[in-house]
Amino acid sequence: MSFIEEQKGQVYAPGWFLVDQENVTRVTAEMDPSMAETAEDGSKYVPMGKIWPTNDQNAVGIVYETVDVTSGNMPGSLVTSGVVDKYRLFDELTEDSEKTLEARGIVFTMFPDDGNQVKRPY
Q1: Cα–Cα distance for residue pair 102/58, rounded to 1 Å
Q2: What is the pTM of this model?
Protein backbone atom coordinates (compact mmCIF):
# COMPACT_ATOMS: atom_id res chain seq x y z
CA MET A 1 0.00 0.00 0.00
CA SER A 2 1.04 3.54 -0.54
CA PHE A 3 1.15 5.91 2.40
CA ILE A 4 1.46 9.66 2.47
CA GLU A 5 4.93 10.36 3.74
CA GLU A 6 6.08 13.32 5.79
CA GLN A 7 2.73 13.84 7.51
CA LYS A 8 2.64 16.80 9.84
CA GLY A 9 1.17 16.66 13.32
CA GLN A 10 0.29 13.50 15.17
CA VAL A 11 0.73 10.22 13.35
CA TYR A 12 -1.54 7.34 14.30
CA ALA A 13 -0.67 3.68 13.92
CA PRO A 14 -2.68 1.70 11.35
CA GLY A 15 -5.88 0.42 12.88
CA TRP A 16 -5.73 2.98 15.68
CA PHE A 17 -9.54 2.80 15.91
CA LEU A 18 -9.52 -0.95 16.71
CA VAL A 19 -10.09 -2.04 20.31
CA ASP A 20 -8.57 -5.48 19.65
CA GLN A 21 -5.83 -5.68 16.99
CA GLU A 22 -5.73 -9.48 17.04
CA ASN A 23 -9.35 -10.50 16.44
CA VAL A 24 -10.04 -8.61 13.25
CA THR A 25 -10.76 -9.48 9.63
CA ARG A 26 -9.36 -7.37 6.80
CA VAL A 27 -9.81 -7.55 3.05
CA THR A 28 -8.12 -5.70 0.21
CA ALA A 29 -10.13 -3.16 -1.77
CA GLU A 30 -9.31 -0.74 -4.56
CA MET A 31 -9.25 2.82 -3.20
CA ASP A 32 -10.57 5.41 -5.63
CA PRO A 33 -9.33 9.06 -5.69
CA SER A 34 -12.89 10.32 -6.22
CA MET A 35 -13.65 9.31 -2.61
CA ALA A 36 -10.45 10.77 -1.15
CA GLU A 37 -9.62 13.80 0.97
CA THR A 38 -7.29 16.46 -0.43
CA ALA A 39 -4.27 17.59 1.58
CA GLU A 40 -2.95 21.17 1.65
CA ASP A 41 -0.25 20.23 -0.87
CA GLY A 42 -2.86 18.89 -3.32
CA SER A 43 -2.17 15.20 -2.71
CA LYS A 44 -5.17 12.91 -2.34
CA TYR A 45 -5.56 10.30 0.36
CA VAL A 46 -8.14 7.97 1.82
CA PRO A 47 -7.82 8.40 5.59
CA MET A 48 -7.62 5.65 8.17
CA GLY A 49 -10.97 5.18 9.89
CA LYS A 50 -13.06 6.26 6.89
CA ILE A 51 -16.25 4.29 6.24
CA TRP A 52 -15.81 2.70 2.79
CA PRO A 53 -17.10 3.27 0.16
CA THR A 54 -19.90 5.43 1.57
CA ASN A 55 -21.18 6.22 5.06
CA ASP A 56 -24.65 4.73 4.50
CA GLN A 57 -26.35 1.36 3.88
CA ASN A 58 -23.72 0.61 1.20
CA ALA A 59 -20.84 0.55 3.71
CA VAL A 60 -18.50 -2.41 3.27
CA GLY A 61 -15.80 -1.74 5.86
CA ILE A 62 -13.49 0.76 7.54
CA VAL A 63 -10.18 1.84 6.00
CA TYR A 64 -7.40 0.28 8.12
CA GLU A 65 -4.55 2.64 7.19
CA THR A 66 -4.25 5.86 5.22
CA VAL A 67 -3.71 5.27 1.48
CA ASP A 68 -2.21 7.78 -0.95
CA VAL A 69 -4.31 7.84 -4.12
CA THR A 70 -2.74 10.95 -5.69
CA SER A 71 -1.54 8.98 -8.72
CA GLY A 72 -4.74 6.94 -9.12
CA ASN A 73 -6.45 3.87 -7.73
CA MET A 74 -4.45 2.00 -5.09
CA PRO A 75 -5.04 -1.15 -3.05
CA GLY A 76 -6.04 -0.58 0.56
CA SER A 77 -7.02 -2.65 3.54
CA LEU A 78 -10.57 -2.64 4.92
CA VAL A 79 -11.63 -3.89 8.34
CA THR A 80 -14.74 -6.01 7.85
CA SER A 81 -15.07 -7.49 11.34
CA GLY A 82 -13.69 -6.65 14.75
CA VAL A 83 -14.30 -4.34 17.70
CA VAL A 84 -14.11 -0.63 16.85
CA ASP A 85 -14.09 2.50 19.05
CA LYS A 86 -16.55 4.98 17.48
CA TYR A 87 -14.62 7.94 18.91
CA ARG A 88 -11.61 7.11 16.77
CA LEU A 89 -13.26 6.88 13.35
CA PHE A 90 -12.67 9.48 10.64
CA ASP A 91 -16.39 9.65 9.88
CA GLU A 92 -19.17 9.99 12.39
CA LEU A 93 -21.29 6.90 11.76
CA THR A 94 -24.71 7.26 10.23
CA GLU A 95 -27.41 4.98 11.56
CA ASP A 96 -27.54 3.14 8.22
CA SER A 97 -23.79 2.50 8.03
CA GLU A 98 -23.67 1.37 11.66
CA LYS A 99 -26.44 -1.19 11.12
CA THR A 100 -24.87 -2.41 7.86
CA LEU A 101 -21.38 -2.79 9.34
CA GLU A 102 -22.71 -4.51 12.47
CA ALA A 103 -24.49 -7.02 10.22
CA ARG A 104 -21.12 -7.66 8.52
CA GLY A 105 -19.36 -8.40 11.81
CA ILE A 106 -18.16 -5.11 13.26
CA VAL A 107 -18.96 -4.42 16.91
CA PHE A 108 -18.97 -0.74 17.89
CA THR A 109 -18.10 0.55 21.32
CA MET A 110 -17.33 3.95 22.77
CA PHE A 111 -14.82 4.38 25.53
CA PRO A 112 -15.85 7.11 27.94
CA ASP A 113 -14.24 10.44 27.20
CA ASP A 114 -12.18 11.31 30.27
CA GLY A 115 -11.14 14.66 28.86
CA ASN A 116 -7.74 13.32 27.77
CA GLN A 117 -8.89 11.17 24.87
CA VAL A 118 -8.50 12.42 21.33
CA LYS A 119 -11.81 11.69 19.66
CA ARG A 120 -10.90 11.93 15.99
CA PRO A 121 -7.41 12.08 14.54
CA TYR A 122 -8.29 14.44 11.69
Answers
A1: 12
A2: 0.83
